[in-house]
Write a structure and sequence with these properties.
Elements lengths: L2 E6 L7 E5 L11 E8 L2 E3 L2 E5 L3 E8 L4 E5 L5 E4 L7 E7 L3 E6 L12 E7 L1
Parallel strand pairs: 1-9, 3-6, 5-11
Antiparallel strand pairs: 1-2, 3-4, 6-9, 7-8, 7-10, 10-11
The structure holds dinuclear copper ion.
Length: 123
Amino acid sequence: MRGFTLRRGAALAGAVVLVMLTSPPSYSQEPRVIHVTAERFAFTPSHITVKRGTIVELRLRSEDTNHGFHIAGSEFNAIIPKRGRGDATLIFRADSAGHYTFECSKMCGAGHTIMRGTLTVEE
Ligand code: CUA
């Protein structure tokens, strides 16, 4: 399991910079576990709100085929396995307040391009 730091780079005009940690992070708090389901062509929930500083553990599961989970503007990308093949886990610290778009990054059919959602990091 890898840790990620979610930052909003001031010089990147709203782009997201994910900083991978080279060693397992030692958390001073328990991660907030959020279960997200992917199913053609939506994520549930599609709007996620966390407080700044929260360590977020996303557990991504599919109800049908493979999907992807990409935070726009970042290099971070996960493949969500088919239904019954387990889930993908993403851990990051939400360091910067803002609105971040996430989107499906694996072609999954006609509605692939509208399969997206929002992550809001509140102050
Ligand atoms: Cu789901 Cu593409």
